[in-house]
Amino acid sequence: MNIPTNLKYTKDHEWVSVDGDVATVGITDFAQKELGDIVYVEVETLDQTLDKDEVFGTVEAVKTVSDLFLPLSGEIIEFNDSLESDPEKVNSDPYGDGWMVKVKISDASEINALLSSEDYKALIGA
């Protein structure tokens, strides 16, 4: 199981990479394996400001649809458009080409509440 140590994680199986006041968000390797083959990623919150833990989109797999929860409060400033035509990137490269959104962080203190890679490993029993 791939759990990069340079990222932060949520109990809802999202990963977060922070660069200044912008966070890149996707779902973890564990989440994509649990979901199975991803066929659609929907994000209709572009240019909206959302609170931490609000739903920012959905990911649809062959067997299920799951909500995506925003790990940090802020404005959704970018959506990975390549997922519209190639949603399998979430399966093949969840921490790279499979990223989902970029968020302009409105409350940097929330970063402290995210899980470390070690905490996330403990959460999923890895």
Summarize the structure.
The chain has 126 residues and is α+β, with helices and mostly antiparallel strands. 18% of the residues lie in helices and 35% in strands.
Describe the structure.
With 126 residues, this protein is of the alpha+beta class. Helices cover 18% and strands 35% of the residues. The chain has helices spanning 29-35, 82-85, 89-92, 117-124, and strands at 8-9, 14-19, 22-27, 38-42, 49-50, 55-61, 65-69, 74-79, 101-105. Strand 6 (55-61) and strand 7 (65-69) form a beta hairpin.
Topology at a glance:
Layout: E1 8-9, E2 14-19, E3 22-27, H1 29-35, E4 38-42, E5 49-50, E6 55-61, E7 65-69, E8 74-79, H2 82-85, H3 89-92, E9 101-105, H4 117-124
Antiparallel strand pairs: 1-2, 2-3, 3-9, 4-6, 5-8, 6-7, 8-9
